[in-house]
Specification:
β6 and β7 form a beta hairpin. It is built from nine helices and 14 strands. Helices cover 33% and strands 24% of the residues.
Length: 325
Amino acid sequence: MTGRVVTVGETMLLLSGQSVGAVPDLDAMRVDTGGAESNVAIGLARAGVPTTWVGRVGTDPAGDRVVADVRSSGVDVVAVADADRSTGLMMKERLADGRTRVTYHRRGSAGSAIGPEDVPAGLVEQAALVHLSGITLALSDRSRATVDAVLDRAEAAGVPVSFDVNHRPKLIDPDTARVRYHAVVERSATVFASDDEARLVLGREEQPDDEDDLARGLAALAHGTAVVKLGSRGAVASVDGVLHRRAATPVRVVDPVGAGDAFVAGWIAAVLGGAEPAVALDRAADAGALACTVASDWRLPDPDAVVTVDDAPEVDHAVHDRVDR
C-alpha cells in the first residue's frame, strides 16, 4: 500500500454505559475515545494504509487519553495541545427501547478550535488522499476555516478529497448545513452520505427520490463518485455513471455508533489498494457490520468471533436510525 491518508477533525473522550440504561441509572461507564475522522484513520491503519490524524486536544488527562488511543492504533498523530480549552466529552447510552443515545459536551472545546495553522505544511500536499467530514464544518467558524484551507491546499496540490457528510442536527441547522455541505461536495472526489443526508445536500427532502437517483445526484455534484449508506438496507454507489448495490452484512448488533466510519475506511482502503467499486463496496459493508458487533466506536473483535446470521437466533443489520445524535 502506498500513499498516506490525512484526516482532520475533533476526537473526544468517550464514556460508554456498560449496561442498558440512561446515565442516571448506571453504576459505571467505560472510558474510551471517539471521533469520526480518527475512527476512519484507525480503520485505515488497521487495513495497512499509512494514516495521519490532525486534531487539537486540551492539556488534560482526557487529551492524553485521546492521543494515546489513536497513536496506539497505528495512526500518526498531529495534535496541538491547547492550554486554554478542554478536550471534548461524549457520552453513549444503550437505552431500553433499543436506541443508542449519544450526547456531547464540546462547545468551546479544544477540538472545535482547530485552525488552519494546526495542519503542518506539506502534510496535505504530500498525501494520497485527504478525508474530511461535515462535523468539522459545524463546530465553529475557526474549524470551518480549517476545512476551507485544507481544501484549498489539496486542490492546489492535486490531492483528492473524500467527504463524509456526517450531519449533526444538534450542531447546525439544515439550511446552513446544505450550503456548506454542497460547497465541499463540489470540491470532493468522493462523497459519503446516508439517504437523508443526500436529500439534504441535494435539496430534495420533500421528493421521493430512490437511492439510485440520490447516488447519481451526489456523484454528479462531486467528481464522479458517491456512496449512499442505507443502514439495514445496504448501500449503493455511483462511480463514473455506473451504479453498484450491496445488501447489508447481517450481524447481531451491539452498538451501531462508528459503523459509518468503519464503512468509509473500508471503502477508501479498498480503492487505494486498486479494488474495483463492487469489491470496495463489499469490503465497506463488511467493515461497517463488524463495527456494530462491539460496544466501541473503533475497537474491533476478531472476525472469527463475530456472531453472524447463520449462528444467531436474533439478527439485526448495521443500522443508522437507531442512533440519537
